[in-house]
Design brief:
166 residues, alpha+beta, five-stranded antiparallel β-sheet, 6 helices
Length: 166
C-alpha cells in the first residue's frame, strides 16, 4: 500500500480522536478498516482553514489534545491532494495544508538540505513528514521532495498573520 492509497481508504471516514505530541507533531485517529487508522503529522508547517477561509489552527499555536479535538473530532475526510511540496486534506468543515519551506526545513534539520546525500542517509521515519499506521499492515510514510513556496499560497497572509498574533 502506498501513502496515497492509505489516504484514499480514509475518504468518508471520521476522525475519532486527535492526539497532540510535541511542537507541530500530532496524530489523527480515523475509524476505518475495522479499527483505528492513525495519521501522523510529523514535523512540518501547517495551517487549518475553515470553509470561509478563516484560520482555525496553525503549527505555532498553543496545541493540546483538546485544541486539536475541537477542530478535528467527527470531521470526515472528503478528499486529499498530495504534491511534492505540500499535502492538503479536505474535511467536512476544514482544510488542512501541510508543507515545509526551505528556511523551516533547514532550521529543523540542522542545515541538512532536502534531497541531499546527507538527507537521504537518514532513516525514513526521520524524513517522513506524514505517516499512516493501519492495523495489520506496514506503516507507510510521505516525504516532501521539494520546498514549498509560501508566496504562492492564497492563504499566505492569513498564515503569517496568525503566527504573528502569538
Amino acid at each position: 500500500m502506498t501513502f496515497q492509497d492509505g489516504l484514499q481508504d480514509l475518504v468518508d471516514k471520521p476522525v475519532v480522536y486527535s492526539k497532540y505530541i510535541h511542537g507541530s507533531i500530532f496524530h489523527l485517529l480515523f475509524a476505518a478498516n475495522g479499527g483505528e487508522v492513525e495519521l501522523v503529522c510529523n514535523g512540518c508547517q501547517w495551517i487549518i482553514l475553515g470553509n470561509a477561509g478563516e484560520v482555525l489552527l496553525h503549527d505555532e499555536a498553543v496545541l493540546s489534545n483538546e485544541v486539536l479535538s475541537d477542530v478535528f473530532t467527527s470531521l470526515r475526510l472528503r478528499s486529499h491532494e498530495v504534491l511534492s511540496a505540500s499535502l492538503s486534506l479536505h474535511f467536512d468543515g476544514a482544510i488542512f495544508h501541510g508543507f515545509t519551506t526551505e528556511a523551516y526545513h533547514l532550521a529543523l534539520h540542522d542545515g541538512v538540505v532536502l534531497g541531499s546525500a546527507e538527507w537521504l542517509k537518514q532513516a525514513d521515519a526521520a524524513r517522513d513528514s506524514f505517516m499512516l499506521f493501519n492495523p495489520g499492515e506496514d506503516a507507510v510514510g510521505y516525504e516532501f521532495s521539494n520546498y514549498f513556496d509560501l508566496n504562492s499560497a492564497p492563504w499566505r497572509a492569513r498564515y503569517l498573520f496568525a503566527r504573528e498574533e502569538l
